[in-house]
Amino acid sequence: MKILIPLDGSAGSLHAVDYVASHRQLFGETPVILLLNVQWKVATGNVKLFINQDTINDYYREQGMLALQPARDVLDAAALPYQYHVSVGTPSDAIAQYACEQGVDQIVMCRQGQGGLQTFLLGSVVTKVLHLAECPVLLVK
Fold this sequence. Notes:
alpha/beta
């Protein structure tokens, strides 16, 4: 079974990783775990006039790896193999697209991420993923 766990770097998003690690027997044989962090695109408008693309790409990579590291630590401690990826764009669209491209059997995500004003302004990523994903989505508290 191929499981995608999207992570936004919040403590809440780690609940999905903890759930998969502690309930691995529910997924049959050792699952193929894919960790995904999606960075919001910051290089819009005139930003590229002042910052070169390599610097922007380095920023995305660094921020993505920071968000993924706690999940990687949990899976390393549980001796579960995984792959990780950092993508750039709108989180809900990128999650659904990556799940489709990778042939994911299930998305496991926390029902609440960074939230706050961002959720109010942009809507819930979880709600959008539920509508866009072509595979089952398991929400973890």
